[in-house]
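ok so I'm stuck.
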Amino acid sequence: MSEPIPRIVALTGGTGFIGSKIAQYLLADGWQVRALVRSSWPTPPLAGLTVIEGSLEDAASLNHLVEGTTAVVHCAGAVRAKKYADFKDVNVDGTARLAEAAANTGSRPIFLHISSLAARAPHVSPYAASKLASEKVVAKKLAKLYWFALRPPAVYGPGDRATLSIFQGISKGIAPIMGSYENRISLIYVDDLATAVTAALADPPPTGSVFEVSDGTVGGYTWRRIGEIAAQCLKKKIFYLRVPRLIMQIAAAANVGFSYLIGRAPILTQGKVRELFHANWACQDNPLTAC
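replied:
not stuck anymore, here's the structure
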């Protein structure tokens, strides 16, 4: 009886909030995981995980990463930058190099691109524009290979810094309102996203598919509904704090200026403010929603 063919997945962004959880779930599902990292893994690697040092700028390390793999999960990406060119360097050009490496390897792996729901509205911010461009470059580079993309909305869970301040405020009984009370957003818990990735690799959708993946709440949540859920869970009254857009714009300008002084990429920018105040970040209903 022949030995089963090993399932080997190349993973980028494996040390990040989302990528590390995806690595955990893939290993639990029997995959051998190769993770691309800039330096050593921050903690002792899990059993079955192989660390490949390199970056999205290094073609040689990308070729080594994808050689002989069954699948590629591209989770790495820039979420903070000073301008579009900086987002493009990672989210578009880095993705192009990885896709090209996958296209050139003899094993012809399935390519799963973790994009973002922001790609649906590229006019909103430089980040959103870069995520849509990353999907287009995958489609171009992998025209003869099997690929698909997931567009998660806001992802939350232990270890997430992006939504931490919002949840900290809610835990103290204050729910911020960005824009209208009726603005809609979808959410997904990080474990559910990792489950969706594992399930998608086990039973891939048609090539070229792009799915908006959420927690399955049709129409997403309004800011008011988030406050109501928090009140039920915390068993306390929640007060709504409507944040003026002008205040956020001033804060963004100050944050960008300070970031230039200290040489770090800003997280709060005018583009991020437009994202926060966008009226509809609710995922469209589709077959691939995490349970």
